[in-house]
């Protein structure tokens, strides 16, 4: 794995490389088709402005999140971009057979050579009942507990290096390295680099032990960010992949031309999260619906706490907030996810952030 596949370049005045995390959010009154079109526009925009990578997150059974099939979306984005790195942020490994993931991401690597990241998580990305339907079992704890073994199996499929005598020795993930060693083979042996994702210390420690890059979900687990990053750095073991630790953090940020509009959008996003956390997932509500909603005292406290970790406001305010966050955490990369009711506002947010940092013009 080449070093530049992990370490991007910071452009303009950005302290570190900037990247994108896309949940393909669907607002009330809009369709999944519109949300996916926004994703294409956003990938093209951020590529033209010098963002380093564009990841899509796996979620299930959530009406307001149309990213249940990251590999399908990434294939579509690959057809509309040329340079930006594309990846999963992440694929939830316990939900899938390792061979299937190796085949899907081998296909993506063939479609977009040297541009694909395979980010892996061990959470279900949904509720327990949906996870059971995905996995065809109700023993969900076993999937999380077996994560290191599943990861090892997936890595061997990607590298095509099961040892002699292993029951999978004659099974090959295609597209993949087997094609380069077959008679007449000209396939590149390169395969997508693996990242581990997490919101606690488990994946931080495992990524460190394996010498892998680490992505932390600061956007929904802010209280664990610094402890997890410290654990990752303190226990990191150099590998053929990385000589030293490399950690990005996902951060929720929304820049608008008007500070008041940012507050309205963030309130709507927090109402959406309240509904999700209380078993009532739906489309992202409009700001008007959120303003008219009667929050209970508990819901109001949740919204206040949630919004405290969303960097929002004018472009200058967001830039200052991102700079402060990077300084506090020492993150090597900031992966920005912007939540708004409309796709146009999400696109505008990334434009404003790019302008605030003086990133290359489109």
Question: Please, could you describe this protein's structure?
Answer:
The protein contains 14 helices and nine strands. With 362 residues, it is of the alpha/beta class. β5, α8 and β6 form a beta-alpha-beta unit. α1 runs parallel beside α14 and α13 crosses α14. It is globular and about 65 Å long.
Distance between the termini: 29 Å
Determine Rg (CA atoms, Å).
20 Å
The run of helices and strands is EHEHEHEHHHHEHEHEHHHEHEH
- Biggest β-sheet: strands ordered side by side in the sheet: 1-2-3-4-5-6-7-9
- How much is the average pLDDT? 93
Structural class: alpha/beta
Beta-strand content bin: 5-15%
Give the biggest beta sheet. 8 strands, parallel, barrel
Low-confidence stretches: none
The coarse overall form would be globular
Question: In percent, how helical is the residue content?
Answer: 40-55%
**Number of H- or I-type helical stretches:** 14
Number of E strands: 9
Strand and helix map with partners:
Blueprint: E1 18-22, H1 32-48, E2 53-56, H2 70-78, E3 85-92, H3 98-111, E4 116-121, H4 128-135, H5 140-145, H6 147-159, H7 178-181, E5 194-198, H8 201-210, E6 214-216, H9 225-235, E7 247-255, H10 259-277, H11 287-292, H12 297-307, E8 311-313, H13 315-329, E9 333-337, H14 343-356
Parallel strand pairs: 1-2, 1-9, 2-3, 3-4, 4-5, 5-6, 6-7, 7-8, 7-9
Helix pairs in contact: 1-14, 2-3, 3-6, 8-9, 10-12, 13-14
Features:
alpha/beta; eight-stranded parallel β-barrel; globular; 362 residues
């Amino acid at each position: 794995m080449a070093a530049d596949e992990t370490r991007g370049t910071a452009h303009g005045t950005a302290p570190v490389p900037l990247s994108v995390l896309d949940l393909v959010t669907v607002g009330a009154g809009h369709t999944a088709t519109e949300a996916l079109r926004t994703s294409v526009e956003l990938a093209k925009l951020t590529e033209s402005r010098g963002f380093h990578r564009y990841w899509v997150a796996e979620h299930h059974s959530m009406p307001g999140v149309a990213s249940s099939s990251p590999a399908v979306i990434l294939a579509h984005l690959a057809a509309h971009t040329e340079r930006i790195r594309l990846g999963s942020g992440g694929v939830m490994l316990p939900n899938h057979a390792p061979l299937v993931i190796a085949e899907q991401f081998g296909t993506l690597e063939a479609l977009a050579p040297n541009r694909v990241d395979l980010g892996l998580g061990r959470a279900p990305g949904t509720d327990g009942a949906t996870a059971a339907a995905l996995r065809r079992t109700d023993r969900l704890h076993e999937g999380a507990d077996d994560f290191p073994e599943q990861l090892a199996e997936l890595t061997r499929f990607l590298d095509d290096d099961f040892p002699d005598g292993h029951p999978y020795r004659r099974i090959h993930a295609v597209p993949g390295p087997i094609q380069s060693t077959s008679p007449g083979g000209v396939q590149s042996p390169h395969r997508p680099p693996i990242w581990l994702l997490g919101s606690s210390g488990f994946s931080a420690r495992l990524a460190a032990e394996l010498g892998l890059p680490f992505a932390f979900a600061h956007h929904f687990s802010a209280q664990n960010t610094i402890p997890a990053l410290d654990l990752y750095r303190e226990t990191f073991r150099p590998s053929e992949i990385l000589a030293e630790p490399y950690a990005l953090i996902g951060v929720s940020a929304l820049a608008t031309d008007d500070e008041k509009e940012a507050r309205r959008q963030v309130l709507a996003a927090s109402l959406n999260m309240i509904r999700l956390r209380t078993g009532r997932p739906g489309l992202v509500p409009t700001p008007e619906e959120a303003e008219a909603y009667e929050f209970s005292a508990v819901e109001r406290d949740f919204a206040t706490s949630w919004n405290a970790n969303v960097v929002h406001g004018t472009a200058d305010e967001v830039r200052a907030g991102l700079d402060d966050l990077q300084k506090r955490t020492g993150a090597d990369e900031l992966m920005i996810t912007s939540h708004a009711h409309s796709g146009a506002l999400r696109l505008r947010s990334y434009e404003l952030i790019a302008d605030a940092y003086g990133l290359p013009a489109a």
